[in-house]
Target: Fe-S cluster assembly protein SufD
Amino acid sequence: MAEAQNIPAGSTTTGNIAVAAESTVATRMSAPPSYDVQDFAVPHGREEEWRFTPLERLRGLHDGTATATGTGVKIDVQAPAGVTVESVGREDARVGKAGKPVDRVAAQAYSAFEQASVVSVPKETVLDEPIRIAVHGEGGVAYGHQIVELGAFAEAVVVIDHTGDAVLAANVDYLLGDGAKLTVVSVQDWDDKAVHVAQHNALIGRDASFKSVVVTFGGDVVRLHPRVNYASTGGEAELFGLYFTDAGQHQEHRLLVDHATPHCKSNVVYKGALQGNEAHAVWIGDVLIEAAAEGTDTYELNRNLVLTDGARVDSVPNLEIETGEIVGAGHASATGRFDDEQLFYLMARGIPADEARRLVVGGFFAELVQQIGVPDIEERLLAKIATELEATV
Model:
């Protein structure tokens, strides 16, 4: 697996497996962040932030023609004792606090939702079981806004599980008080025809820790935009992701970690496997270290495993540094085909081909599976990977 690190602008890998390039352009959107959908032009696919996305498959989310229906999604929240679950209007001060929409779909979702769902963990509360948010598609169009709020020194694990069939645009905000610790596992296990576009915003308080694990399997088109901002010094963010892209699927993960505050850390690791004709995965990793962010320590990595011909990966790591007073900064992108030598090695020791393939791919994902920390989700993920591999040609 060839690794691209500190790639000159415009560099690409050979063939149609992957494109890896370094550019500060992707860090800057075509319009400033805004709550108003009218501040964003209808995208045409030539814009930097839309050039990889199949707009014709977004079912009208990008141009305002997708109208919410009463059969969009059903949301069920299961929370331990002491956690507050409420619905609030757009006037609530917490709505939008973690970050403004940065593209037209996110602004459309903000303009169209009726009630935001807020899950709050009081200060100094340490939960011993996860908060589970089930989002089940019922075949229609929906716009949503979810807020997860942790008070100072609170600790929680939140699982957001997406299933069923829907056309969904949403904003998800994470608000971490000083010293809080939040782990979020977002699972995209949609039916084959679902479309899911979402912006995830995390605002990290002083000495707070945020860990995000994004798992993407299902759906026709899934486009997620995680963003991290630091409210004060000492914040830490870990962004992990794994995706398995099948024939015809488009899965896109676009990340921005904005280091505008001194002495904060971030670590990004995303891994994907692809199989089948026209399977398309896109990973954009933007890290911006602003002039005031002295003492920053950051690294980002994307690795992709191509299991069959006909699949394509676009991997674009971007690192923009405006101060030299940092602890460390780096990035890497690597894409390669399935290693037949590893498969032969295992088969030579009596392991059947199907099991050997599962072991190789399982080993590729093992580091990230361990980050989930929720046993039933880990077991479900491993079972899903095994099921996906059964379809490999």
DSSP finds four helices and 18 strands in the chain. Residues 339-393 form one domain. Residues 82 and 121 are 7 Å apart (CA to CA).
